[in-house]
Amino acid sequence: MVKIFNVSQIKKIDGCTVINQGITSIDLMERASLAVAEKLIRFLDPDQCILVFAGTGNNGGDALAIARILLSRHFKLYVYIVAPDELFSDDCLVNKECLERLTDVKLIKENQDIPHIPEDCIVIDGLFGSGLNRPLEGVYLDVVTVINASHNKVYSVDMPSGMFVEDNASNNPEGIIKAEKVFTFQFPKLSLLLPDSANYCKKMTVVNIGLCEKCIKEEETDLFFIEKSDATQLPIPRDNFSHKGTFGKALLIAGSYGKMGAAVLSARACLRTGVGLLTMHVPRCGVDILQTAVPEAMVQADEFPENVSSVGDNIDQFAIGIGPGIGTDDKTKDLLSDLFDKYRKPMVIDADALNIIAGDESLKEKIPSKSIITPHPVEFDRLMGGVSINGYERLQKAGEFANRYDIYIVLKGAYSAIITPERKVYFNSTGNPGMATGGSGDVLTGMITSLLAQKYLPLNAAILGVYLHGLAGDLAAKSKSQQGMLPSDMIEYIGKAYRALK
Ligand SMILES: NC(=O)C1=CN([C@@H]2O[C@H](COP(=O)(O)OP(=O)(O)OC[C@H]3O[C@@H](n4cnc5c(N)ncnc54)[C@H](O)[C@@H]3O)[C@@H](O)[C@H]2O)[C@H](O)CC1
Ligand SMILES: [K+]
Questions:
Q1: Within 10 A of 85 (CB to CB), how many other CB atoms are there?
Q2: Helix, strand, coil shares of the chain as percentages rounded to 5?
Q3: What are the start-end ranges of the H helices in 56-171?
Q4: Ligand 1 atom, smallest distance to 56 CA
Q5: Ligand 1 proximal residues by C-beta, below 6 Å
Q6: Closest-CA residue to 193 (of 437, 460, 421, 411)
Q7: How confident is the model at residue 246, as a pLDDT?
Q8: Tens of pLDDT along 375-396?
Q9: Each residue of 236-285: pLDDT tens digit?
Q10: CA of 83 to the centre of ligand 2 (A)
Q11: What per-residue confidence (pLDDT) applies to 502?
Q12: Is 256 exposed, middle or buried (0-12, 13-18, 19+ CB in 10 A)?
């Protein structure tokens, strides 16, 4: 797992690295800048004009070092330092003086010094990084406004300048660089993983700058970024002598009239994820549909034609998933309440089951311990009874909710977050915008339920389910495009996603 740290922790690890590796801070800056420059060199066109905007702190120092490295590789550069008060950090000053020996470096002290940015230029943004401590104003705000208005591609060093590493609730949305790509150092930054960065960071690349592993290991955090190597360790190997009983029984309670597709998708995904036996509990109208579309599943018919209203006894043998396409009929609410009374093992709760819970405090209290709920942000806000001001606040609320009700929350979106009852957060690293379409969530519910049935611990089921789901989505997008892919395609790629973890 990659750890995610706050600003003071990053500073501490920097200092610790400098001591343990016997280097100076300027050495570390050079290493960081070289790592970013190498990435840029791979795709930048040497004939294109590049404008570098540096600040006066260490983020500026990085940008000036990157400029020097690019100059040595014959890129065409124009360098500006925004320095209204001409107070430079020590390492920034060293890099400024080095660069001035090679090229002209212009200072921007006030609005009239800001250059016109030609249309087809690339901008390298090194105004502010993790040291930002207040929203931008004055000439800094003016520079950011001009860069954003130019609509050129901007590559940001460490952070889109003007964006805070954690909470941006008090920030000025006009004072943040809109970056094509952010090369962030060593650790993903929390705000870049939240929807708060949607307008400011199209893509985040984490650049390893060789910070001391011992210092990183010793620094504690509750925030993690899931890597492939983490997911690879999770699948439980299959024994030669296993039989269908070995891989558990799942019961998916899904579907209503007009929404049987959700039941079909969750059923297929559950099977493709490896469950031994799957039973679907569906309204009577859905029996033929299910039996035809998913012959591998057994079907239990509800007494009602259009909605699910009750589940039988003997449900303890199953891992249960409930929600896809069930609607919010009163009968279905009774089912959910009854289910929570009867079944006290962790279950997966999604979609309309969450909408039912949202309106009823007593149902929240009855959610079985260690269950996994899988809301998208709108469902989550409904569950909270109010809209969060930003992704950061939503994440805080999710931590409180998970802790209060002793459950796991999978907050779906780009970098889906898995929040534990202990308020730890695991961000997923797979997936793409092609998955933002109706049915994707039903697939995830089927997958996680399948893993619970196969005796994965709830946290592992959530982590592996979310990772595989995203990976299947990435494979589907590769073959069918983000526009052309369907949740059904993702199900077809679950097998290849498993293989990719080998
Ligand atoms: N381990 C690493 O990640 C490394 C990071 N490096 C780079 O260092 C910066 C952080 O540098 P720092 O000097 O601390 O901060 P900034 O350059 O972001 O800001 C400079 C300075 O500006 C002042 N300030 C803050 N907010 C404002 C504002 N709104 N208006 C005006 N001035 C402001 C404040 O005093 C700041 O200290 C990190 O992002 C990386 O790019 C190292 O180079 C290598 C190791
Ligand atoms: K920056």
A1: 7
A2: 45, 15, 40
A3: 58-72, 90-100, 138-150
A4: 20
A5: 10, 14, 28-29, 32, 55, 57-62, 89, 128-134, 136, 140, 157-159, 185-186, 211
A6: 411
A7: 86
A8: 999 999 999 999 999 999 999 9
A9: 999 898 887 889 999 999 999 999 999 999 999 999 999 999 999 999 99
A10: 15
A11: 86
A12: buried
Residue that is written with structure tokens 């400029």 in the block: 67
Q: How far is the CA of 421 from the centre of ligand 2 (A)?
A: 35
The ipTM, to two decimals, is 0.98
Following CA atoms 427, 432, 438, 440 in sequence, which dihedral angle do they give, to the nearest 10 degrees? -60
DSSP code string of 466-494: HHHHHHHHHHHHHHH-TTT--HHHHHHTH
Tens digits of residue pLDDT in 458-502: 999 999 999 999 999 999 999 999 999 999 999 999 999 999 998
This prediction has a pTM of 0.97
Check residue 245 and give its pLDDT. Answer: 82
DSSP calls for 5-47: --HHHHHHHHHHHHHHTT--HHHHHHHHHHHHHHHHHHH--TT
Mean pLDDT of 95-107: 97
Domains of the chain: 2-221 (3.40.50.10260), 229-237+250-500 (3.40.1190.20)
Cβ within 8 Å of residue 207, ≥6 positions away:
32, 35, 36, 39, 183, 184, 185, 186
